[in-house]
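Q: Now give one record:
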Amino acid sequence: MSQNNEKLTQTASTFPEHGPLDENGREILLSVKNVDITFGKGEGAVRAVKDASFDIYKGETFSLVGESGSGKTTIGRAVIRVNPCAAGEIDYKGVRISGKIPRSLDREVIRNIQMVFQDPAASLNERATVDYIISEGLYNFHLYENEADRVKKVETIIEEVGLLPEHLTRYPHEFSGGQRQRIGLARAMVMEPELVIADEPISALDVSIRAQVLNLMKDFQKERGLTYLFIAHDLSIVRFISDRIAVIYKGNIVEIAETDELFDYPLHPYTHSLISAIPIPDPQLEKNKVLFTYDPSIHDYSTDKPELVNIGHNHFVYGNKEEIERYKAIREKGEPIKTITILTPEEREEADRKRLEEEREHRPVVSADDVIINRPSKDTGSIWYGILAFLLPILGLIAAVIFRNHNYIRNYKMLKRGAVAGLIVRAVIIAFFLLMLLIATL
């Protein structure tokens, strides 16, 4: 970033009309720079996001993909200033919006960046009508000339999302999941934002409704020039709506590339594993598909630390120097990487046979003191068994043997401990009396 832009980042209290341009002349709407996000303090602190960096260009759909708990939503919530950044910064149109900023700029962030949430039920106020839910942002920022103008804006947006004006007097619980998500989308779009963060907006919806919501979002993008940060865990969905995709694993962004580039050349093993997990519509092919499993232990970062590097073709991969050189060599060959392997029925049968043999070889031996598979539900190991065995140790040992033969291991252990303790106490008492008797006779 230039010195002028750096100065703007530090001093601006409002956003400029346009953001800075990259070397290819594309406008950078949002820039995440070396961001760390930590929850908790001291030894119990959890570093949820580690050194995350990426740019989002105006008018594109940038998808952030990863498994549950990888840090996707955490980054999205940091952009709207819900999660604070422990390190790094987030810029919008070249102006820093993370950390402490003027109140006027904070309101501008709310006005320009809206979020569509994953759960369409939890994100809507059940005690408010749809009319008020959609109008709340208009009220807070007074984005209407008069009451007639507000009503017109609300009715227009509710029709654009596929609902009717008469729905405005109803409450969220009267709608289906897909309709609720449309209401959430209308609430965001009525603010006329420039950037929309869609946090898994279709994962809670039926499959038949997902395409409708996605098409609706694409229509809004075309009509209004919107930019999306689309958060998801399913690569099969983001493939058809994204311009660029970033893959995140346990807080680290491991790969960023344009959609076709990422699917043709998934260089990082974790990206490879995500693509291999995409279901194949043909059930027979899906049955014979070989999943590629990512094993983090293949990386040795003890001395050579990894970083996110552009290997060319606007393709960023996370790795150390040795891995980056290997990724570059693979990419420069220009041969798309085969991510899915389909076995023949004979090969599948042979693979299953070898897998079963390996499982038998590595199966641990279950001893008497180990957890027994299919343990009975009444095998509680109650303390009362121990007390009864302490009082009646001989009967306790007999009961312990019976329980052991029927796999009541916890009951067996409690009876055994109680009986042994009872016998030891009795032995000590008998020894004490014999000693006293011996002393008395001398």
